[in-house]
Design a protein that fits this description.
Distance between the termini: 17 Å
Mean pLDDT: 91
Shape: elongated
CATH class of the largest domain: Alpha Beta
Strand content: over 45%
Structural class: alpha+beta
Helix content: 10-25%
Radius of gyration: 28 Å
CATH architecture of the largest domain: 3-Layer(aba) Sandwich
Low-confidence stretches: none
């Protein structure tokens, strides 16, 4: 059976992942109904074992614009009636109607709502709303042009296995690792991000040295380096961010999701008053259905 998830569910999973290392928190877990023997998918399950006694915290999420009503409370209570759930927790993005909260308390169900709208210090969470992600996937291809001793200009492509040196000896600096450092330069990435348009694009970078450099293939000197060229092919796409935030224990937790060709990219953010935000990313790759 396929597992399902969404931005709000992953946000609540991130919130519960902070409850401590002793808890094993997982999304989209199947628990077995003790009457029918059939599995039921639960949005988030946190497990903790005390001696021989397992505790199972089952968390269900509702990502709707309207508050949760009594019907949803009763549906979740019925769903977990014969599951091995020790405690049921319900999260609703838009909160709960008053009679739904009353019903949940009577059924010993915990209801959670963490409105982050009034957390004025959560600047990053607010800035991401109605923002877009620009995703650029680069592919590099390099070559070297060399002037041989007989005056010919020869191009070597690929060139990553060649080495720099002077006229008399090769150095230990291979072109491959040197190129990788250049690919990671912030200046190059900034230029690419600033100028890459949606779809396919091409860039060209030329590297020259102020002093004579010779190119070596093992123990054989090839000739004088004329230039190193780096061809850069880009695939660029932009995607609106789906942003969900909750305030829980004086921390605003945010997950912002962009749907791109490789899958879903999540930005998982924690903001506390007076501290810089904590940011990490996660890519949920699309499954190959072919």
């Amino acid at each position: 059976m396929p597992k399902r998830s969404n931005t709000f569910q992953r946000l609540i999973a991130a919130v519960h992942a902070d409850i401590g290392d002793v808890w094993d928190v997982k999304e989209s877990v199947y628990l077995t109904n003790s009457i029918t023997g059939k599995p039921r998918e639960v949005d988030i399950v946190a497990k903790y074992t005390i001696g021989p006694y397992p505790l199972i915290l089952s968390i269900e999420c509702r990502d709707h614009r309207r508050p949760a009503d009594v019907r949803w409370i009763e549906e979740m209570a019925k769903k977990h009636e014969h599951l091995p759930t020790s405690k049921l927790v319900l999260w609703s993005r838009s909160g709960f109607y008053k009679d739904a909260i009353t019903t949940a308390k009577a059924l010993k169900i915990e209801v959670m709502q963490g409105d982050a709208a009034n957390a004025n210090w959560a600047e990053l969470a607010r800035a991401l709303v109605r923002s877009r992600l620009k995703y650029v996937a680069p592919q590099f291809k390099a070559f070297v042009d060399v002037k041989t001793d007989d005056g010919r200009a020869v191009r070597y492509e690929p060139c990553e296995g060649l080495a720099f040196g002077d006229q008399s000896a090769s150095s230990d600096i291979l072109i491959g690792p040197w190129l990788l450092e250049k690919y990671e330069m912030p200046e190059i990435r900034t230029v690419v991000l600033d100028h890459a348009q949606d779809g396919k694009g091409s860039f060209y970078i030329e590297c020259k040295f102020q002093h004579p450099v010779h190119i070596w293939d093992g123990n054989r000197r090839i000739g004088l380096l004329l230039r190193i060229g780096i061809g850069l092919q880009t695939t660029t796409e932009t995607s609106p961010l789906e942003v969900r935030s909750v305030l829980h224990r004086d921390t605003v937790h945010t997950v912002a999701t962009a749907n791109i060709s490789i899958g879903e990219m999540d930005f998982i953010i924690k903001e506390k008053p007076g501290l810089p935000p904590s940011i990490r990313t996660k890519v949920i790759k699309k499954k190959n259905t072919g």
